[in-house]
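Exercise (ungraded).
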Amino acid sequence: MRAWCFGAGLAVLGAASAVQAAEPVDLDMVSRIRDEAFHHSQAAALLKELTETVGPRLTNSPAYDHASRWAGDKLGGWGLANVHDEVYDPAFGRGWEFRSARVEMLSPRQLPIRALPKAWTPGTDGPVEGEVVKVELAKQEDLDAQKGKLRGKIVLLDDARAFEPADKPDFRRYDEEAIGELRTFPVPEDRDAGATDKRLAEFRKRQAFGKALNGFLVEEGALATLSISSRDNGILRVMGGGSRKAGESAGVPALTVSAEHYNQLVRAVEGKQDVRLRIDVDARFTSDDNLPATNTYAELPGSGKANELVVIGAHMDSWHTGTGASDNGAGVVVMMEAMRILKAVGAKPKRTIRLALWGGEEQGLNGSSGYVSKYLAAYPEPTDPEQKALPSAFQRGTGPLQRKASYDRFSTYFNFDNGTGRIRGIYAQENHAVVPIFKAWLEPFHDLGATVVTTRNTGSTDHIPFDRVGLPGFQFVQDPADYFSHVHHTDLDTYDHVVPEDLKQAAAIIASFAYNAAMREERLPRKPFRERDEQ
Amino acid sequence: MRAWCFGAGLAVLGAASAVQAAEPVDLDMVSRIRDEAFHHSQAAALLKELTETVGPRLTNSPAYDHASRWAGDKLGGWGLANVHDEVYDPAFGRGWEFRSARVEMLSPRQLPIRALPKAWTPGTDGPVEGEVVKVELAKQEDLDAQKGKLRGKIVLLDDARAFEPADKPDFRRYDEEAIGELRTFPVPEDRDAGATDKRLAEFRKRQAFGKALNGFLVEEGALATLSISSRDNGILRVMGGGSRKAGESAGVPALTVSAEHYNQLVRAVEGKQDVRLRIDVDARFTSDDNLPATNTYAELPGSGKANELVVIGAHMDSWHTGTGASDNGAGVVVMMEAMRILKAVGAKPKRTIRLALWGGEEQGLNGSSGYVSKYLAAYPEPTDPEQKALPSAFQRGTGPLQRKASYDRFSTYFNFDNGTGRIRGIYAQENHAVVPIFKAWLEPFHDLGATVVTTRNTGSTDHIPFDRVGLPGFQFVQDPADYFSHVHHTDLDTYDHVVPEDLKQAAAIIASFAYNAAMREERLPRKPFRERDEQ
């Protein structure tokens, strides 16, 4: 528990503050950036509009397009250059949106059930009623065993799960012990040679069975499926289901139910009671065809090294469950605000600073991957259709990386996508040459709690496609806040869970990092690159 | 934060364990009780039936009657004596139940709103739609100002509230530091002479305005009112509204909305957006007239001192919001289980041990107060109608306490009503003569974490009516668990938030306390008594 005893370790902070800057930093510009960021911030106002006027932004939903227009208008209005949307995938998938969902237990007693539909699953077209059954549907043999038994039934897909009381506060700031931990690098264990093949095989199996299950449930005439939320305390954590692809079966209505209510359903069914529900889901696909998916860009043009690029970004898309405030409205407005600040303080960068608001992050970093493939570097498209069907991370043997002309002119990418959490430092991704540079850039922000340059890697967001092709791409270290305890992909991912002061702090640091990267003599150094097939 | 650093203070536990018992304790009976409680427990099974087959148990609702029958059948089936329901209030109020509630924002964008109706408020009789307005309705002048403006409107009654991140774990066990704190007694500050009159004046004002507001909203044709939940993180904390009394206006449909959603509504309205909701509440009064309200009793008859009483109890009624598992299903099944254990181990108490399952606790300790007035002691009924209208705690000047014959033959009352939390000790309510007795009774349970006899008072539940008339009445010290952080009067008050091992531990300790009280030579000593008018 000592991790949660504060007051300790201030000495460590002192030590960090004592780091000497080998790298020149324009402290006058830091002052101007901080003044604009702290005393004229628009971050919270932007987030309120994005989350509560536009709302959640599922990729290719009408609200996503609304968000792109909204962002474009703001960025253009601030006088940024080259503001436009650009297609990264001409056939990403169908549009989808949901209006409401009502689930009621009718028997053995009346109980309103807390539930939300999975994205890209059909609505019920009005209220439907049916008996609840719990059957194993994990493999083809299970489907064969259930053939003819599920017509008109509502199917529980998961087991009940015991409540796990939280032993830590829901909302956390890193203390100095946790920050100190980040100053260490855990030497990697040897990777199981077959690990990737194993993950690939599992992925293929899951993918294939998912399609089979969707088709089976439709064919058998099941009314709906229910799954348990992966969070306790009534929190609904809901992502995608069905299929977004035209021509593929979207299955039957599929909802995620709060753990407290789901467990009651399982206990009643296993107690041999007659359990009946009424379900009314108003959800719909907004297109029959696969629609193109877009990113949104804007620039502060460079002068002198205008064709060299510094890119900052965050993902515009969200799940439909909350309003996408922490994931990743916070990142979107922090990055927009960083561009606004640089424009407002009259920054004249040597390199061009480009803002990218990505789509399709939640479906596999699609917007940022599309950007990297088109403009920086890509592996040859596989010809083998089986390989084609795989996410690029799984594709193998298509040949060496093909670098575009701008590959060498690219400097760096900075990303912000771990919720509201204030910046405490940055992940150097094992690029040791950037460590002294980042230490110098962070020093003017030690008084805001941003002190650590960790050599560790972090993943799972839009800096990874840059990192994968050997280009500098970085995500900041952020306080955990209640990101993973409460809001990540849940109905609590709303405006109230974002801390305006955190947004101001992040915007100031990112504006400064982007400016420093755009002004320094050299582009940021790169780390050793391993071809995909050698990994 | 040191309070959350465990491992400390085991020495204190050791010290506590070293307390010498002046009071004889039948350790053979303790062994038999523990064996039955731990190895043949029915507590969790009882709670599952009570919360998930019977469901929540609002006083005078059909489910409350179902619960009384359920408990009576169990208690009779175990061979307990004198099992029956008894009216404590011939005209408590009307029955009420609700089936479902659906609230959707239609404008400025689509959003399903998390909300539940307040008890004893009307349903909507199908879906209704209206504009949302936020107006001050706190005093008569506000009503005058709004006259003619609220027809067809949905009224926000509260301001938005800033999210407050939790800085402690939601689920807590007392550590030794917290237990040590309980071993101290804070000397009371002088009470402001006018404090009671002030509270009384406020109560009268609130009561009068509440009635005026209900009538006003009906007269003006408002569609519904919305209030903010007093918990964050989507938790719905919902008690009563409207009126349960026949002949009084129940007002318009009144719902409590999750803080995250309520704040969005306020921001949209204050942002001058056109906010429209659709509300569909299926709730109904199940009687036109005030129905009598009952407690449920059962006995293990004494032999030798059969007309002397040891009473153990908990309240059967709950709010309608969750399933009343922690508040107070846990207490009900712990007390039922204690009786079952005593019967199962063949206990032959000298004094009669009576189980009381109270109704109306949530509306003001009504069931237990009714019992005390009828059988033990009461102040004369006020004749002044104004006094009549007040809760008895506020009534004054009706003369000295009238003691019934059984007042002197009464020994003690034990209560359990603070959620699932395991017993860590007992509140002696400033009765110092019972301290050495309780210390001796607790010693065989030190190994279960029950170590402290605090001289402090605790209130707010069914031991208070006994305490108020100078009779021994006690509530146990229980681990906080997530009672006040999450489940108290909320939609999370469900079976999954109760820890079965805690129920076993409590049942063993309470069975032993009841047996000891029924067997000891003397009735439990009493503390100095102050007449109500002297307080």
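Further reading is listed at the end of the chapter. For now, observe: DSSP finds 15 helices and 18 strands in chain B. The two ends of chain B are 39 Å apart (CA to CA).
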